[in-house]
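seq as requested:
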Amino acid sequence: GPRPKSPGARRTSYQDQVKVSDNHFLNLILSRYIQLCRDQNIAFETDIRAGLLGFLDYQDMTALFTNLLDNAVASASEMESTSFIDLRIRHLPESSCTLISLINSCPSSPYDALTGTLSTKKKNKMRHGYGMRSVSRVVKAHQGNMDLYYDDESKTFHTCRLYTADAAVEV
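C-alpha cells:
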C-alpha cells in the first residue's frame, strides 16, 4: 500500500512533477527554472533525449545548466511581449556527439558593440562574466566546443555546445 509520509517529507509540489529527462539530478535543476519561468510567464520548452549526460558530474552539470539558464531567464524576462526558452539535448549519431542547444528570447544583442564580447547586465560587475567562464571551463574539460550567436530578426540568443564521443564515455 501507500507509504506513510514522514514529517518534513513534503517537498515543493513542483519537484515531484518535473520529469523532463531521465536524469534525476537534471530534473532537480530544471524544476527551479520551470517554476521561475511559470512565475514570469516565460514559455519553457525542453526536448531531452535519454541517456546522454552521464559524462557530466553533479558539479559540472550544475555549473553548466544553472549559468546557462540564469542568463536565459534574465534576458527572456526583459522582453515586452511573449518570451520563451527552448532547451534541447540530443545525440548526433553521425559524429557520436552530444549536442546541447539553448535558445532564448532576448530583446537586444548581448554583445558589446565596441569589443564584440558578451556584456553583462548584472549589477555586480565583479562577478561579470564568471558564469560564462565556468560554462566554458566545463565545455573545455569535456573536449566540447561552444557556439554563441544573437539573431536580431527573431530576437533570440542561441547557445550550442557539442561534446565529443570520447568525453561521453565513462572512465
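The helical segments are 13-17, 24-39, 58-76, 130-141.
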